[in-house]
Amino acid sequence: MSRTVFCQRLQKEAPGLDFQLYPGELGKKIFDNISKEAFSEWQKKQTMLINEHKLNMMDANARSFLEQQMTAYLFEGKEPTIEGYTPPKS
Questions:
Q1: Which residue of 5, 8, 27, 62 pairs with 22 in a disulfide if CB–CB is 3.0 to 4.6 A?
Q2: Which letter does DSSP use for residue 6 in this model?
Q3: pLDDT tens readout for residues 44-70
Q4: What are 6's strand-pairing partners?
Q5: Domains in the chain, please, with CATH?
Q6: Any signal peptide, and if so, which residues (predicted)?
């Protein structure tokens, strides 16, 4: 049985994540308020950001940067700036 959440990113009811994919309070907020679809979109952007900025995920600053980008994307509707990437027009 899949659970449904009101996705803050997509502004609609959508299937939620099966389990908490991110630790701590932020992870709980994502689990409660973000759909699978929106989180999947974020993961693609996260990969582009990691590659573009050559981020080392062992580095606390890199993780902090990505967390800020993720929060802005999922909860504030902000697209991350990725060189050479133009988001599709909706």
A1: 27
A2: E
A3: 999 999 999 999 999 999 999 999 999
A4: 13
A5: 4-76 (1.10.3880.10)
A6: none
